[in-house]
TrEMBL record:
It comes from the Bacteria. This is C4-type zinc ribbon domain-containing protein. InterPro entries: CT398_CC_hairpin, Oxidative_Scav/Glycosyltrans, Zf-RING_7. Residues 198-230 form the C4-type zinc ribbon domain.
Amino acid sequence: MNKHLEELIELSKIDKAIDAFEPRIQEARAKLAEVEEQESAVEREILQLEEDIKDAELKKAKNDLHIQELIDKLEANKKKGAEAKTEKEIKALQLEEEIAKEQLDFANEEIERLENLIETRKAEIETKKAELEAIMEKSALLKEEIEKELAEIEKEKQELFKKKQELVSKMSQKILAFYDKIRRWAKNTAVVPVRKQACMGCFMKINDKTYAEVIKGEEITNCPHCGRILYLETEKEEANAE
Ligand SMILES: [Zn+2]
């Protein structure tokens, strides 16, 4: 096979392998973001529960104040009752007392309800905190794993860069420029195999003359339809591809 063609096939494989790292890196980072999102979702839930408690405490304080006011009022009513002279005055005071007692009952019930709510929210916070701890433990392990994976990817990438550098340094500038020009639009399919007499870049059938040239492999042959560089795979490569 033509030496330049051989080098181009090798170069395109290296470029393809280098580009293949990107989705692996993104996948690793997405995994990390997912765990971090899980963490902050639980943190937000805990904050909300704490807000609920603050709110309930505030309402409870207002009810306490109200209860004190009602007690004072009942106290005052008692004194007024002792001094009341007419039937009408006594009846009016009794009515006020009834209303105040009703309000007192209601305020006490409300406080009980709020206290129960606070207890429930506190228990929920404990559960959420345990959940958060478990998630953080899991994410610490995962982070370590992902960092290892990213380091591994980086190492493989550097090795490929080195290999590419070595290859490029001995290649013809003209051939490289030619390859780069096709690669600009064809990306990782600048150099493609021919299978069943079809270009594996545009999937169009190539004519017999071009096919014969590809089989010979003495020159660099371009697909007559799309312009990609064509080559004939070894049988082993073909088997792997299928
Ligand atoms: Zn083509």
